[in-house]
Amino acid sequence: MKTIIFAFLLIITASIFSQENDITSQLFETYEKYQETSLDKRRIKHHELQPLLATYRANPQFTVKVVGQSIEGRDLSLVSIGQGKTNVFLWSQMHGDEPTATQGIFDIFNFLASSDFKEEKQEILDNLTLHFLPMLNPDGAERFQRRNVLGVDINRDALRLQSPESKILKRVRDSLNADFGFNLHDQSTYYNAERTEKPATISYLAPAYNYEKDINEKRGNAMKIIVFMNNIIQKYAPGQVGRYNDDFEPRAFGDNIQKWGTSTILIESGGYPQDIEKQEIRKLNYVSILSAIYTIAKGNYVDIPLADYEKIPENDRKLFDLKITNATYEINGNPYILDIGMNRLEVPVENSTDFWYSSRVIDQGDLSTYYGYETFDATGYTIREGKVYPETIKSMDEIKDLALKPIDILKKGYTYLRQEKISISMLKSPIPLHLISKKLIVPEFNLEVGMNPTFLLERDGVIHYAIINGFLIDLSEGNKAAIFNFAFKNAMIFR
Ligand SMILES: [Zn+2]
């Protein structure tokens, strides 16, 4: 009998996923039609959202209410749509530098405002009322920083409620007494699915509401929705899903909102290879969240087996932007074998959506339990110090007058170029050589954690590769296309 029931359950589960599969594929394939193209960079600001919100305020389908202000007086708006009795509440960007889901929410608005997918939308809006609070921390977004201007992590302020942003989130949650809550964040791109090289492009958590990590019906429903969404992400980014540790954090919003009786789903957008602006991940947010909303509207998630939640691999943090393995490094003429893990750390350009990289060696030694977005096996290659090019240039205009091109300069063993006057407004080097000021003395080369990863890889007396600011540059002839491989953005300026 048990086997029969089990088989029956399997059939039910399979049919839920196949039914919803159709709508999910359609959402994926038609995404570009609804993408809010004015928000195409991660560093979105509050003022960019206002004209979009104004159009929804003028649209009778939507209700847009200002529910309060941030510390610096920026309006927080709640956008509601639908007339169903189940309330679904979605909030994003309580951490100012975590904008991916905010962009996804505006894509969802475009979808809801369109005249397509009539049947599915009716199903959604008859059964649910959707409430969105995009960009909960606009002051943090302005500076592209995690915390608000009080210097507080809003996600540790759910009990003390000192920040106006926290008060607003609590008040809105309570006023809606939402059945479902989507707590939308970004996580570091260096997270991976445990013991795999796959980035955790999306990570989930159904937060615990007590130290015992009990599972009541509310939390169980959140887990089922997560299993449902995991199946979707697996289709488009196989293996790229992680599950957060569910240790109870009494001060966090997710844990408390779960405790207050809303089935709470934490979604963290991580990294995706060669998706610096996270636009692919934004699309996955759109597809999976809309599909989840649809399955909540239909109510058929209840048959999803809870046990599948535990099968999602755990989150780990073992990725580097670039991992070089088995390089030979010499000290006093003695060779040692090292792996080197390095990350390209972003430095924001003020009042701009742009940024530049100031990379760092994060670890070195046996890194065999780590992975890289980009890896290079340097077996047989020896690490060499990059030197300062003997000629000093007056300005960048002189680059074309140099006897050698920048790539040839690298091949000769130089990684630094001296320039007489480097203007203050120049933030990064436009060529794959570090620019240094007239008097700067380049410190003695010493490969160590924390240094800017800049060196050369030599084999049989020939320099084959340069590592400049954490970017691997292939110097070989016939491989010109790879010279600026994988998102090379900049070398540095050292004044
Ligand atoms: Zn966050």
Name a few traits of the molecule.
single chain; alpha/beta; four-stranded mixed sheet; binds zinc ion
Number of H/I helices: 10
* Sheet having the most strands: 8 strands, mixed
Low-confidence stretches: none
The small molecules bound here are: zinc ion
Query: N- to C-terminal separation?
Result: 77 Å
Written overview of the protein:
The chain is of the alpha/beta class. The chain is built from 10 helices and 24 strands. The chain has helices at residues 2-29, 46-57, 100-113, 118-127, 138-143, 164-176, 217-236, 253-259, 279-298, 406-411, and strands at 62-69, 75-82, 86-92, 128-133, 180-186, 192-193, 202-205, 241-243, 263-269, 315-316, 319-331, 334-343, 346-348, 355-357, 360-365, 371-377, 382-384, 387-393, 414-419, 434-436, 455-459, 462-468, 471-474, 493-494. Strands 1-2-4-3-5-9-7-8 form an 8-stranded mixed β-sheet, sandwiched between helices. A 4-stranded mixed β-sheet has the order 15-12-11-16, with no helix packed on it. Helix 10 links the parallel strand 18 (387-393) and strand 19 (414-419). Helix 1 (2-29) packs across helix 9 (279-298), helix 4 packs across helix 9 (279-298) and helix 7 (217-236) crosses helix 9. The longest helix is centred in the first third of the chain and has 28 residues, at 2-29. The protein binds zinc ion. The site of zinc ion (ZN) has 3 residues, from loops. Zinc ion is lined by residues 95, 98, 185.
